[in-house]
Amino acid sequence: MSDRGWIGLLLVAVGLAAVPALVGIFDFNSFYLVFLSGILFWTAQSTSWNILSGYSGYFSFGQGAFYGVGVYSMAVFFGRHGVDWLAATVIGGLLSMLLALAIGTIAFRLRSLRGEIFALLTLAVPFILAAVVRLSDTIDGGQGIVVPVPEYPEFLGSFQTFFFVVSAVVGVLSLAVAFVMERTRYGWALFAIRDDEAVAEGLGVPTFKHKMISIAANGLIGGVSGAVLALNLGFVSVEGTFNLRVPLFVIVMSVLGGRNHWAGPMIGAVYIHTLQNRLADSGFDGWSLIVLGVILVLLVLLAPEGLMARFGRRPWAVGGVFAATLIGLGSWGGWGQPVDWLAVALGTAALVAFLPGRRGGEVAAGRRAHHAPEIFEELPSPVEVGRPLVIADEAAKDFGGVHALRGVSATISQGELVGLVGPNGSGKTTLVNLISGALPPTSGTLTLDGNDLVGMPQHRIAHLGIARTYQIPRPFHSLTVRDNVAIAIMFGRDPHGLEVARDAADEFLSLVGLDHLSDQLPGQVNLHERQLLEMARAMATRPIVLLLDEALAGLNPVEVDNAVAVVRRIHESGVAIVFVEHVLRVVNQLATRIVVLDQGEVLAEGEPDLVMSDPAVITAYLGKEGHARSQ
Amino acid sequence: MLEVSDADVYYGDAQALWDVSVRVEEAEVVSIVGSNGAGKSTLVAAIMGIIPTRRGRIVFDGNDITEMAGHRVCRCGVAIVPEGRRLFPGLTVADNLDLGAFNVAARPHRAESVERVFALFPRLAQRATQLAGSLSGGEQQMLAIGRALMARPRLLLMDEPSLGLAPVIVDEVFEVVEAVRDAGVSVLLVEQNVARALEISSRAYLLSEGRIVMEGKASEMAADPEIRRAVLGV
Amino acid sequence: MSQLQATIFGALSGSLFAVMALGLSVVWGFLKIINLAHFGMILIGAYLTFELASTTGIDPIITVVIGAIAMFLFGAIVQAGFERWRVSEFNSLLISYGLLIITVQVVSNVWTADFQRMDSSVNPYAAQSLALGPLRFPLPTLIAAGFAVILVVGAKLILERTYSGRALQAFGQDRDIAGAFGIDHTKLGILLAGAAGATAAIGGMLHSLGESLHPDAPFEWVGRVFAIVILGGIGNVTGTLYAGLLVGGISGLTAAVWSPSASPFVVFSMVVLALVFRPTGLFPSKTGH
User: Fold this and answer.
1) In a domain, C166, yes or no
2) Which of B14, B36, B222 is the closest to A424 by Cβ?
């Protein structure tokens, strides 16, 4: 993300500001003002949708609800009761935002919520709203409402110019909001939530707060944009407002343009609005929804990342084809009007963009097969064991009838490297989940430095100083290695802003030896490197206690040794570590103390040599006869 | 009868098995032992076709089943007793058994197979109409074995049958394994409980961190202190 | 209309939505696919009944045979596509949304956006009603309730009494292990999706007996149908029927006691409450999971 973005946004704003003047000078048909106003309306709607659904991954089918609240606010307050149109716009935005917050408060608090259920809930909201509006005489009553033309400043000339200016302001503001979010922590919190919400919460991201911010932005902008549009409609009705158009169009526009970029929905809006305009003009109005449906299906199957991503891979080819087609048709002049040329140019550019070809990051993939991770020397150094940090007292966890943990008491103190071992099903991962706050205990207490952890939201537990890694690494797939770590710095115990976090991320990457891969995507690095990334990311939250869950799974012996050295380095930096492990030779080497779990209880604990020769432990691992034989 | 040669198996993206070769002959019990995470269950899943094998071959009775889709492997005579039993919880004992014989080869003999299973496990006959999810751990294990036998296999893959069971029940389970072998069915037994496993096997393989590190006759391996070192790391 | 009449009529009307919900719920529960195109199949089923009955004069209920076969094929083909391209649960929602939009627009192009209704000469049921004790109900509603019971009982019998039905249950409970015992998920999935399509056609036929048709109708059905699916338990066959009666009854009662515009609110609140307290549905069942 360079400062090219600022230039892009500025260009859009300036270009739009110049349009009315251009229209006046060149005496263009006001058709272009209307056309551009349409694009600006859809830009605002799609961008606001994308702030919620694209950035955070909570797919909404309910854009029509926010749009409808805006439209009807204008119709009722300005159209029927004569309130000033600007005030009515503000009211529309606020009401829509309130609706968004209400939906969020309910939906985001549901523990059983999955993306699909959220999508279906939002599918229902517009239709409930439509029913209410239709049946309630104070609003519509089934008759529709007339919206007269508002009074506008004289110097603007025509209503169309006025409408264009207002639409442009709303459109540019929506782009600005998306743009700013992308460049600050707010947007990045949403990206992390989209990729893996549970992990984000565990790194300290307050997920509920950020989801509410994004849905509020969606509601506010959608409502304002809808209210403004109502000024141009003249007459609003329930059927005309609460139908499929808005929800479908914003989805297709954003999927087409690209959901990862602030300009994506705008590009999609340009495409779809132009297409739809041309279809309507040539009498194929009845086909536009069919075409859109087909486009959506094809996009999801074949190119879900959208145009902006593809454009970014071959910008010169796409830009060149677009310009060449436009100029070519323009200078020939033998067919169609400028809008037709635009449509064709857009089409050819899209074709070039979507052509299958070399995928981004190929260069990196070639490299990774041969480069072995940097091997650290082992540095022997005793670290003093200090005050108790995590204290679990009779912690128990039941799942249905299964007693995964039955009253485990354990203390993790400063400076320790505790190995948590035990046969399959002994409760090791459950204990880790209890300490990190991923699951609440059925009974018993868990404290960190005296703070009661039970019932505390996970992100606050992260802020207190507990971090964990996952057995199967769970990186944020759409973020680079560096940005994965940066998220942790942005929201961890010692939070910083985006740019600072990005710079500081490299420090943690060199701790684990990944600095040469900082610009790669997690999918492009191997399993060992992803496990090291897990550790770096967890460390970047600056924890006091680090929980490592089977960090060596699937590694070859060389990688195992490297990982062990990394864990040692982490330990020396002053972090207490609890690690769950099956590879017992490693546990014996690393641990200052071993805790053995069996069938949900602590079987033995103490120094590695003593514990591993304890007859009870041997029996648990090898079976009764095995103990007898090994005597 | 079963020949796994130089198999590399990946669990998702992570390599779980490197270059694994295992052999099972007629009417014998072969054990795969090793600590957790060593890859034992992955091997069973790969043989059964539940997860794909990226390199190497798996041949059963002369048929190459390396690439065979999961639902066709059982037709050839291999059945699985999965780790954690994985019965169909909402169906009765009788239904679970019935469905074990779903594959085309076993279906015609369904009635006869049910009788044989009930003879082997009288307690299951008593609970025939009970829901599988309501049985005790030991009974569930018996049912899982019975379900696999309904498929009329020549090779039974048993994944951690002693998991979570009281020692007395474990005894019963291992008695059943011996009975199965005596009836002419081979067993590939994956077990955490090394001692018991080696006791009833003729041969064994020690799997550690995804590789076979030791193999041989079970009696010899049981007496070897190397085993303790490999599993406990001490 | 007395409150009792309104409630019972509501419940009976709800059974029509239960028929609509049945196929959707089973496919979602067993195949992990949320198929919005199901509503498109209901719509086509309704218009096919209208068209066939109006042009050939055959009794509208009989025409459902053709509709059911056609939608069986539609459903099977769509499912085969989902399998072939390994579509995730979430993307199935998006793709089927696209298919639904296409279907609605095609119907609108072919039959126009005007309301269509079968002539009384073609559809004798619409005008008739039947008395049950002191209360009187329109015949189409009673026919729908009858079909609902038959379909649900039939589905339950198939699931519980036939070998293949139990195999289907096993497949829904543990797909991998069912596969290990020979239960082929691809074939089963396609068959199931086809059956769901057939029930969609039946739902469409029942709808056309009593109501006027217009292409945007699916969007009015979505809310109630999903409420029934969630309240009944995803994949729970009998639960779908009970939830249909419940949702219908409460809607009717709310409309009579409070106001018709309040019904959608009440139903929506029920769904939210169910998601909070009983996410697996109000009616626990053995056949579900």
Assistant:
1) yes
2) B36
Structural domain range at position C38: 2-277
**pTM confidence score:** 0.85
How far apart (Å, rounded) are the C-alpha atoms in residues C229 and C18?
8
Which chains reach chain B with 3 or more Cβ–Cβ distances below 8 angstroms?
A, C
**What does the pLDDT look like over A392-435, one tens digit per residue?**
888 899 887 778 888 899 999 988 999 998 877 788 889 999 99
Chain C's closest residue to B70, CA to CA, is: C180
Give a yes or no: residue C232 inside a domain. yes
Cβ-based interface (< 8 Å): residues of B facing C: 48-50, 70-75, 79-80, 82, 86, 88-91, 95, 98-100, 102-104, 131, 147, 151
Q: Tell whether C288 is covered by a domain.
A: no
A388-630 CATH pick, 3.40.50.620, 3.10.150.10, 3.40.50.2300, 3.40.50.300: 3.40.50.300
CB contact under 8 A, A243 and C219: yes
Burial annotation C196-223 (CB, 10 A radius, 16+ → b, else e): bbbbbbbbbbbbbbbeebbbebbbebbb
How many structural domains are present in chain C?
1
Lowest mean pLDDT among A170-184, A426-440, B12-26, C275-289: C275-289
| B63-64 vs B53-60, strand pairing mode | antiparallel
Q: Report the run of H or E that residue A347 belongs to, with start and end.
A: helix A338-354
Domain A2-274 has CATH 1.10.150: no
ipTM: 0.87
CATH number for the domain that contains residue C209: 1.10.3470
* Option in A112, A121, A290 nearest C279 (CB): A112
What pLDDT, in 10s, does the model give residues A370-385?
A: 333 444 444 445 566 7
Cβ within 8 Å, pair C222-A116: no
Question: Percent of chain B, pLDDT > 70?
Answer: 97
Q: Where are the domains of chain A?
A: 2-274, 388-630
Dist CA A151 CA C93 (whole Å)? 45
**Strands across the sheet containing B14-24:** B14-24, B2-11, B53-60, B63-64
- pLDDT (average), residues A91-103: 96
